[in-house]
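Incident review: delayed structure delivery

Summary: a single-chain prediction request sat in the queue longer than the usual turnaround. Root cause was a stuck worker, restarted by the on-call engineer. No data loss occurred. The affected request and its eventual output are reproduced below so the record is complete for anyone auditing the incident later.

Affected input:
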Amino acid sequence: MESEVKLIPEQKLAVINCRTPISDLGIFLSMLMGWVDAEGIETDGDPFIVYFSPRHEVNDGDAVFDVSIPIKKDANETDRVRVVDMIENKVLSGIHYGPADDIMSTYEKLVEIAQENHYDIIGSPKEVLIKNVHNCENEKDYVTEIQLPIIEM
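Output delivered after worker restart:
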């Protein structure tokens, strides 16, 4: 698997905080994208999820995660959508192809790469939804970029 260390620049984000079964992800992603469309928001990248529950446990009941999308400038918040600034951060990045059912194998490979290169994983994983439920009908065609925040030891 190919991986790379990337520096993610400071970004302005639209965020929905969630504590719900991961099966509800599509609902919250639709809610976020609907807000973007209704407000005429100019986006600055693909939507993504940040998991605060352990990723390997998100299918076991409620999960805690944020559904977010980078936006180009400030926007009016709602009772569900917040606008926040994310600081610059360094990540180890790898691509997962296909449905999320087997995404843990890609996580395992990235953790191995982090260990081999003496990277310390310092935060919550992020899944950038390059091709997913919001823009792709067939799960086997999904493309997800996994980003693990790191520091180099």
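Verification: The beta strands are 3-8, 11-21, 48-51, 62-71, 82-86, 89-97, 119-121, 126-131, 143-152.
Action items: add queue-age alerting; document worker restart procedure.
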